[in-house]
Each structure stands twice: as structure tokens, then as C-alpha cells.
């Protein structure tokens, strides 16, 4: 069982587009970013299994087995 | 008179008379400049019921008090007229350098009126203003026109229309410096209706600044804030606006196939990351811009490089058509620029045509066995763009935009537009505030009248629950009002990712010698918003048009992270009207208008 972590923009540097991680019961988004060496203040948007919200809140979300995260640094446009 | 040049140039193309008038400084301060002052000048002179293509219609080219100063991004100009696409007030703005050069020539605005009997262009070089023949330029593409005029006026900046504007396509835009566009609402067609092909401008003057040292200090502070901001100092310079493709898609609000779904599993192929890795040559910044989101790219078909594409353009020629091919996007962007077509509306019209084909309204027979307009058919894009821009065959119907196209077949609901202007690249079902903004935008479907994507998706300045309704009308109002301010100052909206109302007030105060508070500026923004609303009402645009296509109100999003949602406009709209101090029918009250100095 694993999870997919989708990375975007400069988060891909040295990590790649998608990182596969082993799933462990109870693991949170915070555990994932710790593993990747990304800190909370660097994150502008965080999606856990299709759900988005305030970054601080989402970091406490548990990841589903075979689930995914999408992690974004500050980006914008229009 | 600080900040402003103090002169308005009036050019009557019917009589050939050129005159220069003093700017009313009090009026300028009340409406700031750009979008606000341009709307006021226009409304004071033109009957809102005017046919946009009549000689009686006018077109105002106007910069802001910060255009042509050293302030970050201080170079934009606004085109104000009545839109032939929407029937609403059109204020379409562009970057590049043209707006700043108009100021250097000594003018805050150019009002063009009447209609030339033959194609002409206007040449402005300081006090010298000429109306010159343009028969040899009529029918030429934008780059050909710009090159020919640069040869005649090597130091000047060129603003021009392409064949689409000449042929009165309601999607005809105005291009400056080849690849910058006053893109929306068909302002290029108004130029075309006046037989006005281009305006070249150059000058040697500079605006006087009330407190040069103070402005220098504030500008330095603002530039630092922009550089240190993760968006304006990181994401945008590195990846351009195309960086939005992935984040919008991952939230399930990236419209596919004319907004029939909201998630594209193959979006990576047209992402900002892909554009940067495989196509980017260099950044292509506008006047005095420390952000530099503009791109200069090359592809197989364009080995020497061209400007763009932006996020909205990428989406509309990729996801919205079901084609994830960056080479086609770049080529489509090139042809829109050459033809002088608004990329959003041109692509959205193709998307609507493809849905009409999908549903059997457009048939192979109707297309005269020409290339099939079908989602995913890459061969159709450039082929039909050219026919659209040149109004050839079925392209003549396409040139009218998606609303008139769908309405021709009796099914306007397949036009994903508000007030007949096509929606940009965000499905409102998963972004409730943005949907309210779309419905209430004074120029019809638009993302840059209040970019609610910032708080609802990007977390700027704070992350809001994008499905939540409570509080959204207040957010929409303040975003719309602040946007009206920035558009009137002559700055780029992207500065607002790093700057707030205080910084804008500081810059304008040091420039004009005023003592405006951030609240004063927001009140001016609200005044401008209400003024535009009054124009629309007098033009006959009913509040009943403050709505969204039925798809968003009735059809649940079928897939992705926004699955199951519709837009709750019925809940939000009354709350928005109340937030604005308007009556329940969406009409500004006398009390509110009086408070805003509009009575």
C-alpha cells in the first residue's frame, strides 16, 4: 500500500513530479511533508484526497491508503 | 497638476479636427484615472443607448495617474467604450509600454469620435498629432501592421487592430507591441467601425511628481514587497500565469469540453511547468514591471519565438477543446494575436461550436464538409480561427461569439457566458465567490473584475472555504472595488498579490500630493463600480442578466474534487445586492449613489 504525492512548481526541484510513499495507518499530511523536507510556511495550497482547506488544518488530515496529496508553493496568475 | 499630464486629446475622424483640452483635475481625482475616469468621460458624452458601431459612439484610450511613473507596473492603459459583444460598458486594459508612452507624449487620454471615410491611423508625437491614410495597412495582420508603422515611426509604440476588428467581429481586440492585448469585450471592433487601424505614440515628457523623494521611497518599498512575495517574486516570474493549470485542475474547477466537466487527467502536458521546461526562451515583461510574468516561447512552428501564451489562453485552447497539445496552444495564441481576436472568447466560441456539433445542432452539411468542429480534433483549431478572424464561410457565424452562435441555433444555454461575454478558466460550481463575481461583473463574464480565485483557491490573502456561501458577497464587493482602483491607477492587478490598499494609497499620495486613506481609495472604487452599473442600466442591460448559464445552476459537476456541486447564485445574489446597498432588484439606491457622490 502506498500513497502518491503530487508536487508542483519549485517543489519538484530535486524531488520530481510525483513521489510514491509507503502508507502507514494514521499517517497525516504533516508526516508526508516532513518526509519530503517541505515546511508548512512554504505551502500555499494543500489537497488531501481531493479535499482542500486551510494549510494548517489540512496538515492534520489523515491520508487514506492508496490516497494522494497535491502540494503547491505560492502560485497565482489570471 | 501632479501625476496627470493635464491634457486630453480629442480626435474627430469625421471632420479630421484635432483638439486639446484641459483635464478637470477635480474630476480626475474623483474617478482616479484609467477605468474610472475613462468611464466618466465617456458617459458624459455618449448616449448609453448608442449603437456601438455608430459614428456617434466614441472610444477613450486612457492611462492612469501612475502610468509612466517609476511605480511597479506603471504602464497600463484602458480602452473605454460601449461593447459590441455585451452592450455593457467595456473597459479593456493592456500592459506593454503604449500607455506609458501616451503619457510621455503629454496626454492623460485620447478620445476618438466620428468615423473616417477611409482607413486611417493616428500618429502622436508630443504636440504633433496627425490622421494619416492606412489603406495600405487595412487587411494586414497585426505583426505586419506593427512592422510597417515601426518603419515609419521607429521610436513609437504601436497599437493596432487585426482583420477581426476591421470586419467587426464582436471578439475583435486591440493589440499593442505585437503581443499585448486589450483583449475583451470587442473593443477592437469599435476601432474597426471607425476605420481606425492603429495609433502610434511617442513622446519626450514626464509627469511631474508632487513628492519625488517620497515616491522613490514608496516605490522602493513596494518593489521589495513584490520581490519578497512568493507569488510575485517566485511563482509568476518563474512559471508565468500558466502555473495555474495544475492548481486549478487539482481543485476540479478546470473546465473541460465547454465546461462539461472540471478535471483533466492530462493537464500536465499544457502546464506552466511544461511550458517552462520545454518552450520558454525568456521572460517578456511589461513597462517597469518587476514581476515579468510575460513569456517569450518558441515551438516547432515558431522557432524564432513569440509572446505568450497566458493561462486563460492555454486553458481555452487545451482543456476547453479537449486537446492537450502545447504546440497547438502556442500556434492558436499566435493566430489570435495576428487576427486581433480575444483568445478567451475565440477559444470559447470554438468550444461552444464543438458542443453544438456534439449535440447535433451543427452538422457536417452545415460546415459544407469542411474540417469537423469536434472536441479533441486538433486540426480544427487553427483552421477555424483563421476563418473566424476573416469571417469566411461558417467562420462568419463564429466571429459573432459563442452567445450569438448558440442563440442562432435556438440554444443560448450552450454559450458559457455572462452578458454574452465568455467565461474564463474557472468553473464556478466549485468556487462560489467567483461565480457570484462572474454573475455581477459589469463587463460580463470576466475574471479580472474581482479575482476571487485568490482567496478561494490560492489562499491569498487567506484561504476561504470555496464552497461556503457565508461572507462571500462581502469578499466579492471588496475585490471588485479594489480592482476598480488598481485599474484606474494604471497598475497591473498582479501587484495586488503583494500589495494592499495602503501601498496603493501611499503611491498615489506621493504622486498627486493628496492625503487619501485606503478607505478613500476603496470608496472611489465603489463609486466607479456603481458608475459602470448605472451605464449598464441606462444601456438597457437588466439586472436579470446578473446570472450564470443554467449549466452551473442546475447540472451537478460530474467528476473531480468539485463533484456534486452546483452554484448557489439564488442564495448569494440577494445578499450581494444588500452588501452593495442596492435594492432587492439590483438597482443602486439613491441613498447609496448620494453617498458615493453620484447624484
TrEMBL record, chain A:
InterPro entries: Beta-grasp_dom_sf (IPR012675), Mopterin_synth/thiamin_S_b (IPR016155), ThiS/MoaD-like (IPR003749)
Coiled coil regions in record: none
Short name of any one Pfam family annotated for the protein: ThiS
CDD domains membership: Ubl_MoaD_like
SUPFAM superfamilies: MoaD/ThiS
Name of this protein: Molybdenum cofactor biosynthesis protein MoaD
Organism, as annotated: Acetobacterium bakii
TrEMBL record, chain B:
UniProt entry keywords in alphabetical sequence: 4Fe-4S, Iron, Iron-sulfur, Metal-binding, Oxidoreductase
Cofactor dependence: [4Fe-4S] cluster; tungstopterin
Residues annotated as domain Aldehyde ferredoxin oxidoreductase N-terminal: 4-205
Alphabetical list of Pfam families matching this protein: AFOR_C, AFOR_N
GO molecular function, one term: metal ion binding
Family as reported in the entry's similarity comment: Belongs to the AOR/FOR family.
PANTHER family (alphabetical): ALDEHYDE FERREDOXIN OXIDOREDUCTASE, TUNGSTEN-CONTAINING ALDEHYDE FERREDOXIN OXIDOREDUCTASE
Protein name: Aldehyde:ferredoxin oxidoreductase
Source species: Acetobacterium bakii
